[in-house]
């Protein structure tokens, strides 16, 4: 322990960063979530020069299997740790598949300005040029950086700092997969230092109205994906199973196909909240653009992608079923 260094807690959840392959050239077909947190820390002795690190294994899963229950457990643990004066920042090691979702969930429910940084890797720990160790080093640097305080939940991979709201996985295999595309990344981690150039204007962490402290479950919300020839199978199934919200991942600017629209309108009449989002990946879904949202009593996702719109809708539904209020939240967070 060095009193001059920040105290950074590493919470491990699994993913490829904790994965192992049969050979050093195995970069696909490896097994995720095998290496424990102590081994991850031990693999990067340089960590002790930038922070007093300690580790905790919260889960050991591939992130495609992340659930709402995992998120509630993780968020409560993060909030409990950040309330301790001897914790300056938290790093969460995580699979990359749903990393952006966990980051955005925490961005909305963490009750602290202290840095929370999600990190993963695209190559397993056993690979040549594994990206996990450098990403972990950078994440710990970032979590211990005073400049990261109050910036919301951050993502550190490939020497870049991205904000939880706008970052997304853009490539299935390459190490430079996490990008905030048009809205832009926040900075770099270079030479053991975090360099910030921008911050999100959207509210997060201590400035949100959401509190998961007393929650043991989240409202049922699913995503209905749109494409040519789509019908009502998904929407009908979601309503039948009792969903209270549906995010429609529409084509283009959140368009509603002629065959699907009546099912969404009927679902809304039954009380289900409908959010129009887009599968495109860039741009605003404009209110009263591709559909008359005022008349249909639908909500638009603004620039949130469908998987993040699902998260905000779940949290919104813990507070209200008023569509005007929910729309306000989509323009706030
Ligand atoms: N690169 C990765 O971490 C992918 C892995 N399927 C996961 O999300 O756990």
UniProtKB/TrEMBL annotation:
Domain Asparaginase/glutaminase C-terminal: 221-330
Domain of life from the UniProt record: Bacteria
Gene3D superfamilies documented for this protein: 3.40.50.40, L-asparaginase, N-terminal domain (3.40.50.1170)
Alphabetical list of InterPro entries matching this protein: AsnASE_II (IPR004550), Asp/glu_Ase-like_sf (IPR036152), Asparaginase/glutaminase-like (IPR006034), Asparaginase/glutaminase_AS1 (IPR020827), Asparaginase/glutaminase_AS2 (IPR027475), Asparaginase_C (IPR040919), L-asparaginase_C (IPR027473), L-asparaginase_N (IPR027474)
Residues annotated as domain L-asparaginase N-terminal: 7-200
GO molecular-function term, one example from the UniProt record: asparaginase activity
CDD domains: L-asparaginase_II (cd08964)
EC number(s) given by UniProt: 3.5.1.1
UniProtKB keywords: Hydrolase, Signal
Keyword Signal attached: yes
Annotated catalytic residues: 16, 96
Enzyme class: hydrolase
Family according to the record: Belongs to the asparaginase 1 family.
Name the UniProt record assigns to this protein: Type II asparaginase
